[in-house]
Each structure stands twice: as C-alpha cells, then as structure tokens.
Design brief:
There is one protein chain. This protein is mainly α. It contains 17 helices and no strands.
Length: 337
C-alpha cells in the first residue's frame, strides 16, 4: 500500500451532505446510548458511533463538520463546541459502549491470534499481501472483531508471510529417507508405455494427476485399485499433515496449482517446496478418490434397491394375477354346480 492509502485508512470517513443527514438521525436506540455520557462527550460519542458503523474501526479524530452537525441535531448549538478528542478515560468508555452497541469484540491478544491464523491460511492459499489485507478486513467485520490501526495489521501480515515462507524448511527436516524416496519416485519414475492402465505417460505424477473418476459402476474395480495406490502414498506422509496446519481449502488450492504445473518446473523447485506441493497433492487426491468411492457405493446401493423394488413389484403382480385366476376358476365352478 502507498503512503496515501495508509493515510486514507487512518483518516475518518468523508461524508456527503446527504450521508450526514441520513446517518445522524437520533433514533430512540441512539438516544439511549448517548444518555451514558454528557455534553461534548455525548456529541463525540455519536460521531464515533456513526464512523464505527461504517468501517468497524475507531478514529482518533472526527470531522469538525460532522461534529457540528451532530451537535445541532442534539440541540447543543454550535457555540464554543469544537471537535477535539476527549480525555483517555472518556475515550475508553466510548470504546466499550460502541463495541457493546454493535456486538463487536475488542482486538485483544486472543482475537489477534485468530486473525493471525486467518492471515497465515491466506498466504498458504497463495494470496498476495494486498489480497490478504483486503480479505482480513472483511473477515474481521464478519467475525465482529474491531479493526485495529494499519500498522498492527501490516505487522501481522508481514509476520505471517515470513512464517509461511520459512515454513517449508522445518518440513524438510522432518522428512524421512523413505518419504524423500517416494517424492523422487513420484517425480522421476518413468511409467512403462506397455502398462495398460497408463499408456504413454512418462512420469508417475502424470498418472496420479489423471486418476479415474468415472461414475459408471462397471469401473468400480478400477477405482478401488487406484484408491489403494493413492492410499499407500497418503499414509506414507500421514505424520506430516498436522505440521502443515492447513485447512482443506488450502490443501485443495495448492494441489490444483500443482496439477497445473509443468513437470520440469516442479523438478526445478527446491526439495522443501517440492515436498510441500507433493504432500498437499497426495492428501487432496486421497480424499477426492475417497469421496468418489462413497458416491459409487451410494449409487451401487441405490441401483440394488431399485432392482429389488422392481423385482418385488413383479412378484406381487404375478401373485395377484395367480390369485385372481384361482378366484375366477372357483367362482365358475360354484356357478356350474
């Protein structure tokens, strides 16, 4: 962000004449809130209430024009009333009143951790710092957490970015020899052109990217074979997934990015980043195939139930026809007698 954008973030909102008229309407609820303070403090509280409702954050200064307008609405007139911040105790009181009025939570250490984790997740999703900043403002409003100063948010973003950028190195330290061998196998092992399941595919990863997801029940056996293969890879890295601390959305986005990458680009990455991509990809593919098998099982069960219901109808119809025939024969016999 430019210095102008930072300055704009910290500056109180500029209201038009119409907005000022619409926002500063002393409703019954507003009057109850304003009764908690007196005099100029009451005017200042009202202006801060309006600003917080607009942007979910506090400003140290208010517009003299907004202050004057609010004072007139409260019948204070304009004589000897200036828009200067109240003392610290009064400002803190206003802070608590406004948060309670809108059901917001203070930006405490507890909520700072929540915001930091959300920022970290966005970087794992390959968002740019600007995208992260815009997202976190929206996130805090949705979670009803007051938005702090620009410098506080900027620091959280820079810290999270640094953590994510260096986060692959600890992953590399935790890789076992077997896990490193699997990563190498996936990225370098050639697949035989004579293999009926993978004709013409050069790398094992190319095959894993194109695992079968046919909805046909006749392909159930093939899907099970593929599931067993990806399952073995998935559990080979099972101990590392918690250390990545990513949500499902994060694994999915990294995996999709990996599947779009050219094999030469993947192989050119440092081992820690290659491992990061491969592990996220294997986890995503494992759950993707698992979901597919569940869908197949449901389809198979529904197909079986449909056949069973149809067979039941046929048996009942045949039984009804036979019963009807016996009754007709019986009645015919009785009439003839």
């Amino acid at each position: 962000y430019t210095s102008e954008e930072k300055k704009s973030f910290e500056s109180y909102p500029i209201l038009t004449a119409k907005q000022r008229y619409d926002f500063f309407r002393p409703s019954e609820n507003i009057r109850k809130i304003l009764q908690m303070t007196k005099g100029k403090s009451r005017v200042y509280l009202w202006v801060r209430l309006v600003y917080f409702k607009l942007n979910s954050k506090f400003y140290f200064e208010v517009s003299p024009r907004d202050f004057k307008f609010a004072a007139e609405r409260l019948d204070y007139g304009v004589v000897n009333i200036k828009a200067h911040p109240p003392d610290e105790d009064t400002a803190n009181q206003h802070h608590d009143i406004i948060l309670k009025a809108f059901g917001f939570k203070e930006f405490s250490p507890k909520h700072e951790k929540i915001v930091s984790e959300e920022i970290r997740q966005r970087f794992l999703l390959k968002n740019s710092p600007r995208q992260v900043f815009d997202h976190i403002l929206k996130f805090m409003k949705e979670q009803k957490i007051e938005i702090p100063r620009f410098k506080q948010i900027e620091k959280l973003i820079l810290d999270a970015q640094s953590t994510v950028d260096s986060g692959h190195s600890p992953l590399l330290k935790n890789l076992t020899r077997q896990q490193k061998a699997i990563i190498k196998e996936i990225l370098t092992e050639e697949v035989s052109a004579n293999n009926k399941n993978n004709p013409g595919l050069k790398y094992q990863v190319s095959y894993l990217k194109t695992l079968h997801h046919s909805p046909s029940l006749t392909d159930l056996h093939r899907s099970l074979e593929q599931y067993r293969q990806i399952k073995a890879y998935y559990f080979a890295f099972h101990d590392l997934y918690p250390s990545l601390a990513m949500k499902d959305e994060g694994f999915k986005k990294v995996a999709i990015e990996f599947m779009k990458m050219d094999i030469s680009k993947i192989k050119a990455l440092p081992l820690d980043k290659r491992a990061f991509y491969v592990i996220a990809f294997l986890r995503h593919q494992y759950f993707r195939l698992s979901d597919h098998l569940v869908d197949l099982a449901i389809a198979y069960t529904n197909n079986y139930l449909t056949k069973a219901r149809n067979q039941k109808k046929e048996i009942l119809l045949e039984h009804h026809q036979n019963t009807s025939k016996h009754l007709v024969d019986l009645l015919d016999g009785a009439v003839n007698d």
